[in-house]
Amino acid sequence: MNWVDELKRDAKTILPSVVELRRALHRKPEIGNDLPETRALVLEALSGLDFEIEESGSTTSFVATLKGESAGRCVLLRADMDALPMPEDSGVDFASENPGRMHACGHDAHTAMLVGAARLMASRRDSLAGEIKFFFQTGEEGHFGAKICSEEGLLERGREPDAAFALHIDPRMRCGQVAGRSGALLASTSDWAVDIKGKGGHASMPHNALDPIPAACEMVAALQCMVTRRIDVFDPAVITTTQVHAGTTDNVIPETARLSGTLRATSKESLAAAEEGIHRVAQGVAQAHGVEAQVSIATGYPVTFNDAAFTEFASAVAEQVLGEGSYAGMPAPVMGGEDFSYLLQRWPGAMFFLGMRDPAILEPAPVHSNRMVLDENGMVPGMLLHAGVALEFLKGGGVDEHN
Hints:
This protein is α/β, with parallel strands linked by helices.
């Protein structure tokens, strides 16, 4: 039996315990950078194995390091552990027991798969040449968990990784299918707001006021036109207005209005062009209406950029451990964001999407839906891919030593 067949056998053997862990995590979702129950469940699942545990000083993230019998390279495998602040309506019998919180992005599956991969690797420790860092991370959903841990030095304690790899599930992709691309995989994320100030008055006498609401409405439409006319379609940006706030009652023209939303881009150039466009449109429309506008933009996660050599390597591993045709290249980036981007700025590596579509559902809900469900059998390919990438990287595959 070759090493791939052995991995498959062992992954299928431990799947029931991995499913049990995933469901335990799903019942007790926690948000942000303080996930004490989640960390306790993961540490318990890793107990009794030969790992060195390094904990973050400012979050409940931690790194479990497995050292092989001989020296070699070091690869970091990452799973995010936090949930979303939203209700759950999935109908599963292990649904969230924490009101207003749900694992709707698959982080419970990410964590359970990485625990499974850690168990697979622990049983092969004697044959490993190098180190594997299993990074269990908090705060991916907008709380900058990866950046915090990177800046405090958690990820290179002992030694610095030579590469980093992560998976993100997709409940709409066929179970076991893997997708990725070199270069930009996911967009940068920024939050923006425009505060508009006019002059309040009676709804029956708008000529005696400076109504901020028509200006706000025009800005929403003008921002969309600006993107299509001023941003290169092959270097895209997406501006979305998600909130409009104005007024207190029906017969009063308010003094102020506020727009806010998100800006996504796949390069520094398109990001800069879109930011300049938001300022220009807001000020131009405001001047036309005789009101004032103040723009604020909060920069979020950078572009998630896959290293070309590592992407080619990891896609070949996917074909090797999951079967021919399991990997598909993506023609374009996804405009969501990821804080794994901070790790890929420091070390070569890649993130791939992993299909977990439940075949019983005709139209599966996407991630971040209150009805999102997945096929837990898809965690076997996830364990296999994590383990395969680690094993082959420590054997010398992946990136140039001098990259």
